[in-house]
């Protein structure tokens, strides 16, 4: 879903999204991550967090597009060895994969933020 640029020597990021995919950052209030400016939030927990200066810029990374699976293939359903347990995919549920606006979307569970380059 993202493209690493050959001459980009910066660390800690994954590069821009490919032309056939979309990336969203979604607020995670329980972790104080908010993707929009403070003026976008009316009252509630978000306002209290912004007022106290505890807000973090960013959110949960959601990836969408025509190349995103509508679900996780579980090899054990076919009697084969389960997937690699270290990748965390075995814990993903139907709620982590959904369709919206004609795209399949995947909630990665990763936290990310936008760089000046996007």
UniProtKB/TrEMBL annotation:
GO terms for molecular function: ATP binding; long-chain fatty acid-CoA ligase activity. Keywords: ATP-binding, Nucleotide-binding. Signal peptide: none annotated. The keyword rRNA-binding does not apply. One of its GO terms (cellular component) is membrane. SUPFAM superfamilies: Acetyl-CoA synthetase-like. The keyword ATP-binding applies. PANTHER family: AMP-BINDING DOMAIN-CONTAINING PROTEIN-RELATED (PTHR43272:SF33), LONG-CHAIN-FATTY-ACID--COA LIGASE (PTHR43272). This is Uncharacterized protein.
């Amino acid at each position: 879903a993202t493209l690493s640029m050959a001459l980009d020597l910066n660390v800690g990021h994954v590069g821009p999204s490919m032309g056939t995919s979309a990336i969203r950052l979604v607020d995670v209030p329980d972790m104080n991550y908010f993707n929009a400016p403070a003026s976008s939030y009316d009252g509630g927990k978000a306002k209290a967090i912004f007022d106290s200066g505890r807000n973090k810029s960013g959110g949960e990374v959601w990836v969408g597009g025509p190349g995103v699976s509508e679900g996780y293939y579980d090899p054990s359903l076919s009697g084969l060895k389960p997937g690699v347990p270290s990748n965390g995919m075995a814990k993903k549920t139907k709620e982590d994969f959904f369709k919206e606006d004609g795209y399949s979307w995947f909630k990665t569970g990763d936290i990310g933020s936008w760089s000046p380059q996007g």
